[in-house]
Design a protein that fits this description.
about 140 residues; mainly alpha
């Protein structure tokens, strides 16, 4: 993976880590921290749908992948609609894992690229899931 891809991927973790830390140091209220965390999570989740939208169009696969590409945006939006319910953080967290598994078996990348992409995604998704668990712990 190019350095810039890794750097941007790691930078994308900052809000996931910053919101629980901000609450822990009394920089934000728990409500603010949880809302900002959920908003960022929902927006970032929709990004992963875009990857499948691009892959589907680039490889002229207009079947189920095109439709599934819309799911992360819809799930993210529904989580924002129901943001008052702490269970939505669990839904977001599980959605990251689900789209990672779907990526592994669906994306049309050369073998070397898919291996490095999935390896990076496993590392990043692990931090994302742990951060969601941390936020769930804080709000319950």
């Amino acid at each position: 993976m190019p350095y810039s891809v890794v750097l941007l991927g790691v930078a994308g973790l900052i809000p996931f880590l910053a919101m629980p830390i901000a609450y822990s140091f009394n920089l934000l209220s728990l409500t603010q921290s949880a809302i900002y965390f959920m908003q960022y999570s929902a927006v970032l989740l929709s990004f992963f749908g875009g990857i499948h939208w691009w892959d589907s169009i680039s490889n002229q696969r207009y079947g189920k992948q095109m439709y599934i590409a819309m799911l992360p945006s819809i799930i993210g939006w529904l989580c924002l609609v129901f943001s008052h319910d702490p269970k939505t953080l669990g839904v977001l967290s599980l959605s990251y894992v689900a789209i990672l598994v779907y990526d592994k078996f669906t994306l049309s990348l050369p073998k070397g690229q898919i291996v490095s992409y999935i390896s990076l995604r496993i590392a990043l998704t692990s931090v994302v899931v742990i951060s969601h668990a941390w936020m769930i712990y804080l709000i319950t």
